[in-house]
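fwd from M.: "can u put these together and see what the complex looks like"

so here's what she sent:
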Amino acid sequence: MQKQHLLLALIAGLVVHTAAAQQLDGTLKKVKDSNAITLGIRESSFPLSYLDATQKPIGYHIDICMAIVNAVKARLQLPKLEVKTQAVTSQNRIPLIVNGTIDLECGSTTNNADRQKQVAFAPTTYVTNVLMAVKKSSGIKSLDQLNGKPVATTTGTTSVQLIRSHEKGKNLDFKEVYGKDHADSFLMLETDRAVAFVMDDNLLMGLIANAKNPQDYAIVGEPLSVEPIAIMLRRDDPQFKGLVHATVSNMAKTGELTKLYAKWFNSPIPPKGVNLAVPMSEQLKAAIVNPNDNPAESYKK
Amino acid sequence: MNYQWNWGVFFETIPSGDVTYLTWIIHGLGWTVAISLCAWIIALSLGSIVGTLRTAQHRGLALIGHAWVEFFRNVPILLQLFLWFFVVPELLPHDLSMWVKQDMPAKEFITSVLALGLFTSARVAEQVRAGIQSLSRGQRNAGLALGFTQTQTYRYVLLPMAFRIIIPPLTSEFMNAFKNSGVAYAVGVWEMVFVSRQMVEETGGQVIESLIVPTVLYIICSYAANLLMGVIERRSHVPGFIVAK
Amino acid sequence: MFSNFDFSVIPPSLPYIWQGLVFSFRLTVTAMLGGIIIGTLLALARLSGGKALGFAAKTYVDLMRSVPLLMMILWFFLLAPFFMKITPETSALITFTLFQAAFYSEIMRAGIQSIPRGQINAGFAIGMSYWQTMGNVVLPQAFRNMVPVLLTQTFILFQDTSLVYAIGATDLLKAADNTGKLYGRTVEMYIFVSLIYFAICFSLSMFVKYMNKRIAIIR
């Protein structure tokens, strides 16, 4: 694993090496001057970025970020570059990128046009579908069966707005309930405060995998939204963005990204060794064939 | 700082409806005020009773007061709210439990007010007690010597003094309750913290604006409450005691 | 729900919960000591009769008491990098101390005001200055009168350390929360942490009650 990363990093380093003669600026200069790079991580965005049993950040996006870090090391010729991590929340991740506290955000941020006004994104590395988790025993298959019933989602997420828009569009009336985080929302489903929990599919799969009785739950419904998820970096920083894009695009081309996907989505992962067994979506396959940082708006049909 | 400001965002319409973000935030402020005031009524009435009980001569009553305070002040409000919301309904009989969880009207609001009110009552009780105990023992004795009963001594001698002495910390406590009402977002009440979090998400990039406005609204409201209490404090100060100018 | 409680996730996570607890303690003790010292000075400044001094102290206290702590923690951490390099932990230590000072100051002011004015006059009469009178006569009594309230404030402070999640620092609650989420055992973890908070605050409370009996002023 480590060797492959190094090799990749070297390739990425070579790609941008043609520009190496020019003066460093932006993030690369900052990293070189401080001899440290700080990664923003999420503590429970399963399986993209979360803390394992020893409170160490792991996940699909962490692995990708480490590949970028290796490329930075190669580019700056700083093999001993210090890698720091800083836990971020959905509230502070953008300000922390903007004020320079973190250099890369390796969480689960949707790339959309509004955010692109403040920050830049690496090429899309995951595409999430907003679906719902239900108890199998309820027999619910679609959102339209939920008229008058309690539906859970998490505060401060796009799903809140998606559900409300869906209600309006279809003239339905849900009793929405909101958890402060995904674990609380799932608990609402578990304790029958809600009959469905609407959220990004990868997060729902993670919650079910770790639930007390995973076999009791199913993920159903038609996607309310399809959103590209990507690593976030500072805006107006062409040197660093070039390096990040070259690295991630290379990972896509060499098959490294597909391997990492298999590692986190199709094999047993910590802490319980559950295999999420999620085949790669068509949208993600397309994003790997043609690496891009198109915002969510371009995924709408 | 490479941040793209956009204060106009407050006059944009939210994606799922026909109101602007500004209307939305003010709506949130309404819930914040409602939760804090309701919780404060519970806290002040229960807190005064419990605080008085703690200074009672009767051992049993004092013990009840003590147990109340220890029970409600020793666990953070967020955890207490969680326990009221997720754990307590599970202890009820099945039908009642399902009613509380799914059909009870305004269940999130009621749970938040209850949790915040009880939590704050323990702190109010401690201040009432401290106020009574800071009075010299002679006052109680004087009351009894005049032929007052215990209750009358409290009603006419001790409490009027004690309450005036503890107005400053009581003001702090009210402001705390106001600010603590933000935890209600955790069970899904659309108060200001909830709206702010949602606005961060729905505007995509305008995080700073979405956070500044609620912060400023909190400051203005708490400050207003503080000024009002300041007036009450000056009007009611006890002659012969040191007072802030 | 309760039929399949599983507390077995707790033992392996104890080292991290312990680390979180140590940070909560460090934050509480620092902010308490710093807060009481700064707070007492603020209270004295406010009651000193000096116009400018009193106004400055009042403004500081009122402003701090009006800001939600969570917002203060978040804003300080977001703005600090423009002036200095700062870790979430240091940021939390500074914010908590400055914030708590305002609350301790109000408590000390109430304590000072509970002392009859005659005692101050007595101090002046025997030739002591304002600060001498305060230091030797008023404060020792005020402090003892207010021990229960100072203690309550410290409990609040200890419980509020959980708000550091906003800047990515890990305290007792966050450490437990992370573990609970990892194993899908939030309820068990929250109950467990509630018990820890209760045990700590309750024993402290008993200790202070005992101390209070020994130092309280008999009236």
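replying to her w this: Chain B has a mean pLDDT of 91.
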